[in-house]
Input
Amino acid sequence: MRLYTRTGDAGQTSLKGGRVRKDDARVEAYGTIDELNAFVGQAAAALVRSGKLDDMAAQLADIQQELFDCGSDLAFANEPSVYKMGAEPIARLESEIDAYITQAPELARFILPGGSEEAALLHVCRTVCRRAERRCVTLAAEHNVNAHAVTYLNRLSDYFFAAARVANARLGVADVEYVRSANVFRKPKSQ
Output
């Protein structure tokens, strides 16, 4: 099998059902998701190396599959009749976020990306995920997109934030507080 086809040499690429310029909003959106997927793979490798975060690494393996689903849902020249990404992975992420919130110290101030290497890599995933979400929102202004894919990316960035905090907590490394931050996260008032 040859890896190169020469069909993209003039700045066009194939989508399911047609060809577009390589800087088309669809290509930009699924390309950013692909970039995110590569960073998720890097983070998963670091989590496994730590020896204390294998459960989180297993979650990242599922997330990588779901990111491929999201990218696939965006790679159509015309709107497909069936999408791969649905509501179930979003609900699972919400459950995992809720569980992680209980495993990290209470948050009072903004934090900086960092602490442990593992948490720093999860924060990289969070920021690239936010960019992927922005690219999908731009795409949605021009074309019909799977709303579940956009929601998934929104929830996924929250997951990466929560996971980064738990990684630091499990590894015994403190989150790095933004020293100029006021106490912005307050407990809800009892009713």
Notes: The longest helix spans residues 25-50. The longest strand covers residues 12-15.
